[in-house]
């Protein structure tokens, strides 16, 4: 897949590929981004979905111009990349309504040590962020599953298969009737960024996207 396709019809049309983690497609700011297609002259944007880590790797090898996702700390510190904050967020616990912890006003990571925790897949920025938080707290969940398909995870939680950890904005997008959201005592930041190569900051294909994010 090329970063730019050269021709369409009688004129020249630049074609840019943007990576998007699935939850972003449901968010209001992304709907605003879709309007860029209507206002950016001679630029056609196409979208590729995937995990944050996989998309950022494609940004680094120039398959993608940029990606909306949740970078790991290592990726945030990568000197080749620049990350523009899109949505600042934090992690909350998602529990079945009948769970013993569901009545608490907040819970700590230590409360989850003996619970069946559902974590994101290992190749995601979300996994890196959450597993690092557990490690810094000196806690290793006794049992855990891995799944990054949010609809499936929410179904698992609703059917008492475990406790999940999601950013609060994502939970709002995937609500379930028999699931509750509890704040964590430890604040775990899990924000969404627009990630791109630092050398592409002034790329004419990227400018409309960056302008949308900053307004």
UniProtKB/TrEMBL annotation:
SUPFAM superfamilies xref list: Periplasmic binding protein-like II
Q: Does the keyword DNA-binding apply?
A: yes
Q: Which Gene3D superfamilies match?
A: 3.40.190.290
Is Flavoprotein there in the keyword field?
A: no
Q: Keywords assigned by UniProt?
A: DNA-binding, Transcription, Transcription regulation
Q: Which residues form a coiled coil?
A: none
CDD domains (alphabetical): PBP2_LTTR_substrate
The entry assigns this protein to a family as follows:
Belongs to the LysR transcriptional regulatory family.
* Alphabetical list of PANTHER family matching this protein: HCA OPERON TRANSCRIPTIONAL ACTIVATOR HCAR, TRANSCRIPTIONAL DUAL REGULATOR HCAR-RELATED
Name of the protein this chain belongs to: LysR family transcriptional regulator substrate-binding protein
**Species assigned in the record:** Symbiopectobacterium purcellii
């Amino acid at each position: 897949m090329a970063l730019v396709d050269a021709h369409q019809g009688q004129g020249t049309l630049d074609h840019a590929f943007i990576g998007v983690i699935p939850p972003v497609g449901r968010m209001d700011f992304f709907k605003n981004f879709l309007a860029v297609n209507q206002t950016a002259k001679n630029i056609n944007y196409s979208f590729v979905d995937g995990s944050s880590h996989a998309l950022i790797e494609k940004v680094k090898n120039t398959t993608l111009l940029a990606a909306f996702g949740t970078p790991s700390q290592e990726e945030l510190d990568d000197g080749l990349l620049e990350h523009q904050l899109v949505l600042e967020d934090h992690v909350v616990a998602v529990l079945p309504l009948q769970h013993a912890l569901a009545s608490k006003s907040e819970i700590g990571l230590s409360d989850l040590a003996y619970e069946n925790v559902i974590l994101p897949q290992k190749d995601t920025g979300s996994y890196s962020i959450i597993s690092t938080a557990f490690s810094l707290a000196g806690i290793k969940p006794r049992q855990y599953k891995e799944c990054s398909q949010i609809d499936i995870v929410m179904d698992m939680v609703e059917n008492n298969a475990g406790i999940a950890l999601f950013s609060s904005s994502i939970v709002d997008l995937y609500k379930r009737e028999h699931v509750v959201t509890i704040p964590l005592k430890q604040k775990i930041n899990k924000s969404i960024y627009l990630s791109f190569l630092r050398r592409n900051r002034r790329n004419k294909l990227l400018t409309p996207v960056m302008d949308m994010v900053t307004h």
